[in-house]
Amino acid sequence: MKIIILGGKGYLGWPMSIDLALAGNQTIIIDNLIKSRMSKAVNVQPLFSNSSSNKLKIFNSQCNNKIISHNVDCCKYIHLSKIIRQTKPDAIIHFAEQASAPYSMKDYKSSHLTVHNNIISTLNVLHAIKEFSPNTHLIKLGTMGEYGTPNIDIEEGWITIKHKKRKDKFLYPREASSLYHTSKILDTDLVWFYVRNYNLRVTDLMQGPVYGFETKAMRSNTKLFTNLYYDTVFGTVINRFIVQACCNEPLTIYGRGEQTRGYINLKDTIQCIFLALKNKAKKGELKIYNQFTESLTVNQIADKVINAAKKLNIKVNVRHIKNPRKEKEIHHYNIRNTSLKRLGLRPNLLTQKSIVDMMTHILNHIGKKTIKINNSYVKWT
Question: Between the CA of residue 260 and those of 24, 131, 360, what are the distances in Å?
Fold first, then answer.
């Protein structure tokens, strides 16, 4: 297949690009490296610091099926549409969005960047597919955070509502907790509009927070590891806790720690996208899958990390801090996620072994170096 990956040098995009190329696909990355500029602006950096250009050179030197890369801003329609028109890909995987809720709430500049980047990039790819490559299958990474934490069970994207002896099927109600999540809800509405009106084929993967940093393809060369952020702005909670434990720092828990979310291993994110490629949406169809493998509270995650650290003779403490976010800390959370398992997803769960493996990789990488953890919190005010 001929596949374009928007944001193909990022945390998710890079390992996806490698696996697609190794599977024999013609793989084309479009990425303007905006994440590196954002991280510098808030004074954070990933743990594995090999540059994207170096990783690409290393991979292409070892693989006969080279990855093609374009430094293009997806918010520039004329440039993005030109590549789509010339390439006419079988599929486009859309990772090119600012994915940090704290960053989106930091200040006006960050809020504007998030909303503009996420909505305009999505609009541009949808419109370019409509105009120049209408048979292309778009796979968009949504987020479970679009749903919020309602006091009813969460279905897979759709809900049937009965009202005054009539019934109809609607997108499941959304309730964002940040401007990032708000931008993703607007993305979903844009996608559904283009599917309904222009007969596009789209799969929307409503993904939970991702953890991990390596795949089977990366194990042979640690210089290919994807960017692992562990700070309070870009780091997801599992990645952050694991690095804190490796650095003998307390695990910082917001509020009571009973907030529940659906989590997924990086390896399973890649599995899910391969399944979406294999089971593509029909023309005029929007498929929505809830992409996570297990629901955990923050306290449960902390307990798992503490117990795994004991295996490495590391004593880990916990520190509860005032929650900087506006969110329910105790809430109902029951989400349907059967479709991807039915298609063949084989989950890699957050086990003691998986945490020990991640910690061992990180400890070997750190060595005797001192790792600075940025613990400045963005407040929802």
Answer: 38, 41, 27
Q: For residue 367, how far is the Cα from the chain centroid?
A: 28
Evaluate whether 137 touches 118 at the Cβ level (below 8 Å).
Answer: no
CB atoms within 10 A of CB 376: 12
Q: How many CB atoms lie within 10 A of CB 283?
A: 13
Active site residue 351: no
Q: How confident is the model at residue 367 (pLDDT cuts 50, 70, 90)?
A: confident
With respect to residue 359, please indicate whether it lies within any of the assigned structural domains.
no
* List 143, 182, 203, 215, catalytic entry: 143
Q: Is 251 exposed, middle or buried (0-12, 13-18, 19+ CB in 10 A)?
A: buried
| Phi, psi (degrees; rounded to nearest 5) at 151 | -90, 25
Q: How confident is the model at residue 221 (pLDDT cuts 50, 70, 90)?
A: confident
Task: Flag whether 159 is in a domain.
Answer: yes
Q: What is the CATH number of the domain that holds 76?
A: 3.40.50.720
Report how many domains make up the chain: 1
Mean pLDDT of 300-306: 98
* pLDDT classification of 368: cutoffs 50, 70, 90: low
Report whether 143 contacts 264 (CB < 8 A). no
Inside any domain, residue 237: no
User: Catalytic: which of 11, 103, 147, 180?
Assistant: 180
Residue 333 is a catalytic residue: no
Task: Supply φ then ψ for residue 188, to 5 degrees.
Answer: -60, -45
211 tagged catalytic = no
Is there a domain that residue 17 lies in? yes
- Burial class of residue 43, CB neighbours in 10 A (0-12, 13-18, 19+): exposed
Tokens of 41: 């602006």
**What does the H/E/C string look like for 193-240?**
HHHHHHCCEEEEEEECCEECCCCCCCCCCHHHCCCCCCCCCCCCHHHH
Q: Say which of 184, 267, 287, 304 is annotated catalytic.
A: 184
Q: Which domain holds residue 268?
A: 2-229+263-294+334-347
In whole angstroms, what is the distance from residue 190 CA to residue 339 CA? 23
